[in-house]
Amino acid sequence: MASMMADMVEYLAKALVDNPDEVRVEEHDDNGRVVIRLDVAEDDWGKVIGKNGRIATGLRSMMKVAAVREDVRASLEIGD
After folding, report:
1. Average pLDDT for the chain
2. Domain count, the chain
3. CATH code at 67?
4. What pLDDT score was predicted for residue 80?
5. Segment 11-16 long-range contacts (CB within 8 Å, at least 24 positions apart)
6. Closest by alpha carbon to 77, among 34, 42, 47?
7. How much is the average pLDDT of 25-36?
8. How far is Cα of residue 28 from the mean position of the Cα atoms in its chain?
9. How large is the average pLDDT for residues 20-34?
10. Which of 45, 44, 28 minimizes the C-alpha distance to 36?
11. Which of 9, 12, 42, 66 has its CA 20 to 30 A from that of 19?
12. Which domain holds residue 73?
């Protein structure tokens, strides 16, 4: 079952990209830290990264707020 953080990242990413069907979010545990991995279509990388990484930073910030609500440590990996 996906956490609230993974669901939120998937929802936001699908709203940002041109190919929402190609958005993939995976979640796994890495020594007590929840790691959420976001993959999108190659043409959509710029849309989830943003100028100077601003959108990616925003996604990470929102995810960390959700992590605090779930009382876990979390990180977001985008792409490779």
Report:
1. 90
2. 1
3. 3.30.300.20
4. 66
5. 12/59, 12/62, 13/38, 13/40, 13/48, 13/59, 16/44, 16/47, 16/48, 16/55
6. 34
7. 91
8. 13
9. 92
10. 28
11. 66
12. 4-78
